[in-house]
Design a protein that fits this description.
The protein is α/β, with parallel strands linked by helices. The protein is 49% helix and 13% strand. It folds into 2 domains: 166 residues, NAD(P)-binding Rossmann-like Domain (Rossmann fold, 3-Layer(aba) Sandwich); 104 residues, 6-phosphogluconate dehydrogenase C-terminal fold (Orthogonal Bundle). Helix 2 links the parallel strand 2 and strand 3. Helix 6 packs across helix 10. It is globular. The mean pLDDT is 97. Bound molecules: 1,4-dihydronicotinamide adenine dinucleotide (NAI) and 3-(4-hydroxy-phenyl)pyruvic acid.
Length: 276
C-alpha cells in the first residue's frame, strides 16, 4: 500500500508507525511545512521519503491529512485531481466545516475521521506506535464517501484495533465540544488562574495528582487548539455556558453553606463514572 502523510506530528507520525507495525508492504511518503519535522520524521523512520510537491501524492492509495483543522481546509483544494481510487482521510478534531469545504471533485475520495485518542504533546518525536490501538474513531457523513474509500478506511481502522462510531458531522461537533473542546478550555483556564497568583511556583510545588490530571492538557499546542475553538465556536460557547452554570451552582452552594445539597451535587457527578 502506498500512503502519503501530510503533517508528520503526533497524529500523522503515530499513524505511520502503526501502519508499519500492521502491514509489511507499506511505503510512506511524507509532507510537512516544517523542515525540521521532515528531518526528524526521516530519522525516526516514520516515513520512507519526503516530498514538498502535493502532485506526488495524487496517485497514492491513501492520503492522510494530519495537520491543524484550518490547514486541512486550505489543503483540500490542492488535492483536486487525485486518482478516482485514492482515499483521503482527515484526522481533524472538528468535522462540520471540514466536510462543508471538501471540493465536489474529490468528495467521493474523502473520508472524514476523528480518532478519539491523542496526547498533549506534538511533533514527530511525540509519535507512538500504539496510540490508536483499542481507541475509538468517529467517521462522519460516511454515506458521502465512495464505496472503495469507505471500505479501505474501515479496513485500516479495524486492522489497527480501533472501534468505529458513525455520526453526522454536526452531531460530532456538538459532542466533541463537551467531551474534548470545553475540557481543553477549562484546563487552559485552570493553568492561567494559577499562573496569575503572586507566587505560582510555591503553589505548583504542592501539586498532587488532581491538579496534574486537570492541567495536563493545558500543555497542548495553541496553534492546533486556536483553530479548533474557531471552527467549533458555537458548540464550544454552549458547552462553556453549561459548565459555568454548574460552577456557579457549586459557588452558590458553598456561599450559602448548603452542605447537604452540595453533597448531592457531588454525588450526581460521581455517577458519570458508572457510564465512563
Ligand atoms: N493532538 C491530539 O491529541 C489529536 C489531534 N487531532 C487532530 O490531528 C491533527 C494533527 O494534530 P497533531 O498531530 O497533534 O499536531 P502536531 O502539531 O503534532 O503535528 C502537526 C504537523 O503538521 C505540520 N503542519 C501544520 N500545518 C501544516 C500545513 N498547512 N501543511 C503541512 N504541514 C503542516 C506541523 O509542522 C506538524 O509537524 C489536527 O487536526 C488535530 O485537530 C485529532 C485527535 C487527537
Ligand atoms: O490528551 C488528551 O487527553 C486528549 O484529549 C487528546 C485529544 C486531543 C484532541 C482530540 O481531538 C482528541 C484527543
Amino acid at each position: 500500500m502506498n500512503v502519503g502523510i501530510i503533517g508528520l506530528g503526533l497524529m500523522g507520525g503515530s499513524f505511520a508507525l502503526a501502519l508499519r507495525d500492521r502491514y509489511k508492504e507499506v511505503e510512506i511518503l511524507g509532507y510537512d511545512h516544517n523542515d525540521q519535522h521532515c528531518i526528524e520524521a526521516l530519522e525516526l523512520h516514520l516515513v520512507d521519503r519526503i516530498s514538498d510537491e502535493l502532485e506526488d501524492f495524487k496517485n497514492l492509495d491513501l492520503i492522510v491529512l494530519a495537520i491543524p483543522v484550518n490547514g486541512i481546509i486550505a489543503t483540500l483544494p490542492e488535492l483536486v485531481g487525485v486518482d478516482e481510487k485514492t482515499t483521503i482521510i482527515d484526522f481533524g478534531s472538528t468535522k462540520k466545516q471540514i466536510v462543508e469545504c471538501v471540493p465536489d471533485e474529490i468528495r467521493r475520495n474523502f473520508v472524514a475521521a476523528h480518532p478519539m485518542t491523542g496526547t498533549e504533546k506534538s511533533g514527530p518525536v511525540a509519535a507512538k506506535a500504539d496510540l490508536y490501538r483499542g481507541k475509538v474513531v468517529v467517521l462522519c457523513d460516511i454515506e458521502e464517501s465512495g464505496e472503495i474509500q469507505r471500505r479501505l478506511a474501515k479496513k485500516i481502522f479495524t486492522d489497527l484495533g480501533m472501534k468505529i462510531f458513525y455520526m453526522d458531522a454536526e452531531e460530532h461537533d456538538r459532542h466533541a465540544a463537551f467531551i474534548s473542546h470545553m475540557p481543553h478550555a477549562l484546563s487552559y483556564a485552570l493553568a492561567n488562574a494559577v499562573m496569575k497568583q503572586e507566587n505560582p511556583r510555591a503553589i505548583i510545588a504542592l501539586a498532587g495528582g488532581g491538579f496534574k490530571d486537570m492541567s495536563r492538557i493545558a500543555k497542548s499546542s495553541p496553534n492546533m487548539w486556536t483553530d479548533i475553538f474557531r471552527q467549533n465556536q458555537v458548540n464550544l460557547l454552549q458547552a462553556i455556558e453549561c459548565f459555568k452554570g454548574e460552577l456557579e451552582r457549586c459557588e452558590n452552594l458553598v456561599k450559602e453553606e448548603k452542605w447537604e445539597e452540595l453533597h448531592h451535587w457531588m454525588e450526581r457527578a460521581n455517577d458519570l463514572h458508572k457510564i465512563l
